[in-house]
């Protein structure tokens, strides 16, 4: 028998075996004879029938199925091969089903997807595992769709159209009948809603619900990114109208209910282009020599009331979305940029955490409650940084966010310098307790009036940023601790971060060893210390961004929940988000619960809050994906104008189809496709994170420096392809 015939025979035997289990386990309470099974799996050939009978006997003898009566078979009751999981479509159209509780994901080939899309929740049947092989299965039904709206390009025909989705994980186009075109024209980028997918149809049927514009135009592409994740880019008219009718005036009767801090020195420090100032710091020296430092947060919950359309909209959005060229706010502008923004020389309602702190940054007293403030000054981070670096109040023209150079009063200089000193002590304490210092480089763009990128720069976190960060962390931690330590246990919203997965850390260790670094796995503290040392050691080196990214990926994801497990990355036993209610819905929940408990209220049920926490975590993830896609889009736009230029990059990823390369000078990442490397035939070595040439044995490995040029750019699909020139000598 030829090898091919033998392979085909084995393949058919495996298909029949899977068919047996599919039939028996779909109806585990029933028994079937070989004729019934043959009919259900389409066996008509006499050879196949003999194979079926033989396999039934073999499986019975191995006790993998039961024989009930002569020639009648049923599934073993304890064998559970149907599971519920989430679909992860690959770039090649196949899928892996992520099933909670299973160590391995279940591979499902394209022809067994049963019309499931990326991130759908499905029922999957798992085939009996063959020795040394990965888990495989087939989807038996779609339980729930993750989404039914997709962004795509219209391909117009005479009496119908197809919409070709731009998401590579969406493997089918969508048929649109003539009466469901909206105003779309051929080639437009649109949003299409899938209505049904008939059994006998190759494509699902849909309706074009919105025309986004012409592909490649700036606003079209930005709106496409938002639409891809189901994120809005404008407020419904009725929500805007409701917000504009709110009474945002400051009233004496409301001030009387609050702690009045209008005479206390107060100022804000924010990015120079910020429009919403949701936090301010106040500073006062007490008679005993200690400092009273207040962290004052916009009192959003004073205006955002339950059971209103404004509340519903804020909850649905759950977060503001920060794209490269705009912010899509959680709250309408009347609140986010006006009533709730702590602008200088304006009285504002705030919710405050006020601390008495000694010279060694030890907390002596704390107070939480509603306040009214009047901010004296507004500073950009660069201005505050200049005060910290010089110890003086003269802000030069090139740093000033005002009309020209100006001088800050001594009391603000002293306050800034004192808070900077205290912040450094608090940060040092955190690090000693095992906090991890992720100062990942953030890419930013200089945009012209047409929103075209003229340059790339990196956002650095300096002392002024860290000053604000430490006091926000202090407020968040102490609010969580204040509620979390009370008995009996009270329902509250926590921001938690689980310990990292050891397998991921081991994989990280394998990669960083190529650069001469290593982690210490002796105990929890050793891991934290060695991670911090790693992040410090790579600063300014070619591998910094790669190592930063991989280290973050090895961490668990921070989420919102009512179940407090602490925050690993910050080394806090209690942590929440209290400081940004303008842009985060969980902070609004925290404000409401805190005030409820300050008023002596009973603890509410946890279930509704856990549902809201889950929604907020999900929306945060979508917003982060949209932000990443907008940066990728702008990077590709930037690289369009540099197609004739050679760049030095670092190999940031290796796959069977090519190399991902990140350019060192601007952090733009693109792909060198393996088929485009012509000097040899290269194969993927998964263990070595490398591709290896068959003839010359040349290797391109994760972390290698290479020289590349732009081969092609695709703004619509957000693809950037490089040509490989060679290794950087």
UniProtKB/TrEMBL annotation:
One GO MF term attached to the UniProt entry: exoribonuclease II activity
Ribosomal protein among keywords: no
EC top class, as a word: hydrolase
UniProt keyword list: Cytoplasm, Exonuclease, Hydrolase, Nuclease, RNA-binding
Record-listed E.C. numbers: 3.1.13.1
Alphabetized PROSITE patterns for the sequence: RIBONUCLEASE_II (PS01175), S1 (PS50126)
Domain (S1 motif): residue spans on this chain: 644-725
GO biological process: mRNA catabolic process
Catalytic activity: Exonucleolytic cleavage in the 3'- to 5'-direction to yield nucleoside 5'-phosphates
Alphabetical list of InterPro entries matching this protein: CSD (IPR011129), CSD2 (IPR040476), NA-bd_OB-fold (IPR012340), RNase_B_OB_dom (IPR013223), RNase_II/R (IPR001900), RNase_II/R_CS (IPR022966), RNase_II/RNase_R (IPR004476), RNase_R (IPR011805)
GO cellular component, one term: cytosol
Record localization: Cytoplasm
Family of this protein: Belongs to the RNR ribonuclease family. RNase R subfamily.
NCBIfam families tied to this protein: 3_prime_RNase, RNase_R
PANTHER family, alphabetized: DIS3-LIKE EXONUCLEASE 2, RIBONUCLEASE
Biological role stated in the UniProt entry: 3'-5' exoribonuclease that releases 5'-nucleoside monophosphates and is involved in maturation of structured RNAs.
Name used for this protein in its record: Ribonuclease R
